[in-house]
Structures are given as structure tokens and as C-alpha cells.
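Reply to thread "Modeling small-molecule complexes from scratch"

Following up on the discussion above, here's a worked example others can learn from. I took a protein sequence and the SMILES for zinc ion and predicted the complex. Inputs first:
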Amino acid sequence: MSTPLTPPTPEDVATMASDALHIYGWDLSQDGNVVEIGIGPFGADDKPLLPGMNFQAHVFQVPPAPPIAAEGVDLDVDVARELAYTSIGKTFEGWTVVEREDIDTSRWESHHWLVIRSEAGEHFGATYSKGLTEYQDTRPWECDTIACFEPIARQTRVVQVHEWVTRADLIKLHEYDELIFGGVYCTHCTPDDCADADDNVMWPCPPLRAAGVTDDEAIEIITARRAAIEKAHRASAAQGEAKTAGGDRG
Ligand SMILES: [Zn+2]
């Protein structure tokens, strides 16, 4: 019996990227699909050192690129108009509406970009304008007899978005666990399928170090959690005893 192949995940590929970057001796750490790359102060011998720089490599899976048509298509205005009013994902006369973008609004009209897909999986796009109110009564492609759609290609763009989390939430996210032979590791930063003990990311992990978690604070956190666990344990034990005592009486 053969074991089915497991497709690589973005996390797996991020691990490979991180392993490949090791040869440069940079300060590397990985958090899921993100590889943190810290390049230390650098420079030439006779010049002052430049400050260190931080980079992040993000690994995403992208769907296969759709085929691109060589030529555009001319649609009957009635079909094109119907597509302009069709919901995204819905199909009309063999054309699926993929995206409708609002480009601009002038005094009487709004301008749009419509992306449609043929049954062969090729994408086409066209711009159209329509009246803003029913009084203007300009429908898409009002003055045309055919609507010309151009062949288009998909481009993927990565946008950097910064989110702000409290330091307390960051510490909560990077939870630790204790190793059998001593030491604590970060359950968030250590890969899920970590087979090699050397691959354990010790806690406090680099993101927590970056947030200023010192050894003293780490010991405080561990002590507090142990105390909380013990307290919960004692409470449940006491409850158990109470139940047993109640049972004896009855
Ligand atoms: Zn961590």
C-alpha cells in the first residue's frame, strides 16, 4: 500500500526557504508562513558599519495562472449589459462575472471595469459607464451596438498591512510548553511536525525577545502559570473529595 503524497503547505515552503537562507549566517526565525530575516550591521572594512536591517519573506500559495486569449471578443450589447448587472460568480450565456470594479464617478455617470471568464477559462475585461440615477437613463454601452472586451491576464500583488496587537496578546499567542528533559519551547513558533529536538524554538522565542521579554519576566510567567495550574488542581481535588464525602453520607 502506498502512502498518499501530502502537498506542501505554505509553512513547509517557508521552512525550506529558511533552511536555504541559513548559508548566509543571518538571524532567521519562522512563524507559520513568515520567515523573519535579520541582517546584522554590515559594511566594508574601511567604512563605518551600517545599521542592521529586518526583512520578512511571506509564502503564499497562488492558483495556477489562467490561460490568456490572443484576441478580444465582441459581445452583443444586450449580453454585455446583462453581465454588467449580473452578480459576481454568476453565469449568463456562457460568461461568468469574475469582478466588477468601480473606477470613478463623474457628475452624472459612474465608470466601471468588468472582468468576465469564458467557458475555456480565458478572461476578458471592458470598461463601461452608466447613469447615476434613473433620470439620466444611460445604461451600460448605451450608444454602442457591440461591447468590445480585451483579453486580460491575472497579476498578483502583495499588500503590506500592519496590525497592532497588545503585548499581552502577543505573549498569549506565543504560548510555551515544557520539554520532558527540561527547557521550554514556543508552541507557536515551533513547527507542528517538529521531529528533530534541535528544531524546537526555545521560549521566550525571538518575537517575544523583540517585545522585551527578559529571562526574569519569563520565569515570572512560568511561575504564575504553574501556580494557576496547581490552584485549579487543588480546587478540583477538593471538589472530588466533597463529592465522595457526600456519597458516603447518602
Ligand atoms: Zn513564539
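What I'd highlight from this example: The helical segments are 10-21, 77-85, 167-173, 206-210, 215-249. The chain has three domains: 1-62, 73-152, 163-236. Questions welcome below.
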